[in-house]
Structures are given as C-alpha cells and as structure tokens.
Amino acid sequence: MAGLExxxxxxxxxxxxxxxxxxxxxxxxxxxNRHIDHVAPDDAGNILVFPIIEGGEIVGEKYRGPKxxxxxxPGSRQTFINGDVMDDPALYDPSGTTALVITEGEPDMLTAIxxxxxxxxxxxxxxxxxxxxxxxxxxxDDVEGDKFWFMYHNRDRLKKIRRFIIAVDxxxxxxxxxxxxxxxxxxxxxxxxTYPDGCKDLNQVLMEQxxxxxxxxxxxxxxxxxxxxxxxxxxxxxxxxxxxxxxxPVLDTIFRPFLPAFTVVTxxxxxxxxxxxxxxxxxxxxxxxxxxxxFSPELPVVPQLRDxxxxxxxxxxxxxxxxxxxARVDRFINEHFVxxxxxxxxxxxxxxxxxxxxxxxxxxxxRFGVRGFILDPWNEVxxxxxxxxxxxxxxxxxLRTVIKFGRRHGLKTFVLAHPTKDVGKDGKARVPTxxxxxxxxxxFNKPDFGIVVDRPNANAxxxxxxxxxxxFEGTGDKxxxxxxxxxxxxxxxxxxxxxxxMDMQ
Length: 505
Hints:
Elements (H helix, E strand, L loop, with lengths): L1 H5 L4 H6 L3 E9 L5 E8 L5 E8 L2 E9 L3 E4 L27 E4 L2 H9 L5 E3 L26 H5 L1 H6 L3 E4 L4 H14 L4 E3 L9 H8 L1 H9 L2 E2 L25 H4 L8 E6 L6 H16 L3 E4 L5 H14 L8 H14 E3 L14 H15 L3 E4 L15 H18 L3 E5 L25 H4 L3 E6 L7 E9 L8 E8 L4 E4 L2 H8 L1
Parallel strand pairs: 6-7, 6-8, 8-9, 11-15, 11-16, 12-13, 12-14, 14-15
Antiparallel strand pairs: 1-2, 1-3, 3-4, 4-5, 9-10, 16-17, 17-18, 18-19
Helix pairs in contact: 3-7, 7-8, 10-11, 11-12
C-alpha cells in the first residue's frame, strides 16, 4: 500500500482493520455524463478503502485518493471508523487509565494505532466547516445536525467511556470539531494534545519527527482544567467571553447573551415572558444559526406553539401567509427548533422528572447540536425531593444539575419560573423580583442573568424587560428597556422616538 508507506504508516496494522487498495470504476448515465459507479479492489489501485464496521459487520466504506480525493460509498452509516473498539470494557474503568483517542482522519488514526494507542477512532467525514455568518448561510447548511450524526448514533457507547483524548487538526475546522466534541462529551472527560511547532496533525508529527514524537503527543495530553490547581501553561488557549446581539439594539445596551449561560426569567401571568423568550430564541437562530430544544408542557406544540413560532418567524399574521411563505417558515422552524414532548414520547406511565428531561436534552444535543434549551415553566417538572430535604436545599440541588449540564455542554439555558401568588395579593399586583419565585433565594443567586418581564397595562402592550441580575462584567448591566408587543405577529419590537416621548408624557 504505497499511500500508507508514503505517510510512514504500518500496512500490517491497516490490513488488520480491513483496509485495502482499489480503483475507481466509472459509468455513464443516459445523458453521457461520467460519474463514479463504485470502487473495485485492486492491489495496484490508487484508492485506499477503509471499511466502516459496526458490531463486526461492514456498514459502509470510506475512500481516500490522491490530492485529497475523499468520498464515501453511498448509504454508508455515519459512525466512527474503527468504532468497535469503543465496546472494550477497559474504556469504562473509572480510573480512566485507558482513553479513547478521537482523530479527524484515517491517517492520524493509523498513526496513533502504530504508536501503540489501539483504542483510536476517526470521525467519518473529517472536520465540518464552522457555521457561516447569517448573510452567507444557506438553507441546506446543517453543520450541527447530520454532520454530527455519528455522535448521536453512538451516544450510549460514549456515555460509558471515562476519558477521551481529542487529537484533531490544529486548524480552524479542527478547532471547531474539537470544540463540538468537547461540548457533547463534557470537558471533564476530555484531554487535549499539543503538537510541535509547525505540525498541524498527528501524522505530520510522525512524518517529520518520528514515531516517538507522535507517541509523546498522545502520552503528554492534558486534561481540560476543571478542578484543583493548575499552572497557566496547563490551560488551552481560550478567547474572552463572546457575547451576542439579542436582535433588539436597545436591549443590547444592558443584556448581551453568551455561551454557556444560565438565565432565569419570571413575570406575572399574561406578562408575555414565554413569548418574549421565543422571540429571543428566534433572533439568535436567525442571526447565528443556533438550534434550540424547547420544553413547554403548558402549551401544546401543535397548533399553539407552532402557530406562535410561525407568526414570529414570518412577521405576519397566520391568515396573511401564502403557501410559499408558510413553507419557508416551517423549514426555518424545522431547522432551528426541536421540541421535547412528554406525551408524544409515550412515557405517560412515568413521572416527568428533571432527570428524564435532561436525558432528552442530552439526546437533542448529540443528535442536533442544540445551542440553547428552554424550560417553560419550571413548576411543570416533577421535583423529587429527598427525604428530610427542604425546598431550599432541593431547588439549590436541582438548579445546580441544570447549570452544570449547560456549562458542560456550552448551552444557553432559559428557565421560566412563576412568581408566588403573594405578588398579586389583594389585587395590588407589583413588578415581581427574582426573590418572589417560590422556593428559594437560589433563583437570584444561581443565574448568570435574571430577567423580569412585566406588562403593566395589558391594553397598551408596552412590555418592560427588567435586567435584574448580571453576573459577568461586559455581558450587560442592571436596567430596564421597554418593547412594544405586536399582537398580529407575536413579535416584540423596539419603540420609535415618538412612542418614547408619548410614554414619558
């Protein structure tokens, strides 16, 4: 296998994985256009064939040819190459002594195997392109969906593995792949590698500095710093907090969302807090391509939540939508929102627990790569308090579970919680605070942002967005912004200058 020897790889180890050489066989369609028909085994061929094996059965093939000519056999299952090593119980040992090495391509996988790291897999299709800016994105761009199907497909295997070494390319696409792997697997289980200067991947280290150097890259992998005390050199380079626009410039002056962040939203019934959060989710999806997992048991997905989203996305009333507009709107919703539905899931015989809900969010993360999660409202989840555990202790523990999950996986998490009935006692409703949420002061202490939505006059539809808690400098300030709710399209809109003047009068 000349291609392997050129990269200084051991053909015997490759053969043990079923790798062989072949040649492309072409055919012509009825119009006379020439296209690839299949790859036939050929000892003198210039195509390396990597079988994709799952459970001992071949479920696809990956082809590598000259000049970065990569493709897969049509119908190949999107799963890890050499993925059956993930079934080795040694990877499940709590000590984490045996790690699963994840590489970006087959040459790096074989380099690690040649260096003695037998538990190594490769992602099936290399590193995807990072998401593009809004103006450059195409409707078919599914970077965080099907491109990471191999993660969702192997989610049960991956849950059991105690340690991962992420050894992907040191370039823009590779860094995006590494970030997404770590986000889905959890930083606490992931270790990162450092390549020698001038080398961007493991195979280049082998070719330029030898097998010992490649082995050392993996042996010297470091954990992502989470606990204990570390030297500065132990930390991977990370940018400062990146904030995002809410889509309302006036609100951006006091509230700048970031990832990961935990946000609590409260407000009186009828204040519009659920609709405002869905507006914000749409703005972030529209501007940045974020995908959301939504759990809203008080509002049936069809038709209520669906129709609300249709109005928000289109900006027009339902009866004004033409069939082409409706098709475009539904396509956007399907691409950016997934819904967690307890009844549809067929789990009616069990309690709707926080644990059940977080399992569904994990599935949405692995399958669709969601960036945000909305729980609306908190009181709809059965809260299993331990014996002798107070409400305050339970809420602190439950919120820690949600926050820890969101931080581990880089999610923007919104929890909507109702204030107590005392806020409207004796018919004298006031603007609630985070301390008015039933159960614990943790509702103020725990979040990165605390927001109160208030609509003092239901007839005017002026809605006040109060930012009551901002944890990190540079992500916002305490303050209030007034938005106008448009009943026709369920959107919250900025007031113009004349409207502000009228309000002041």
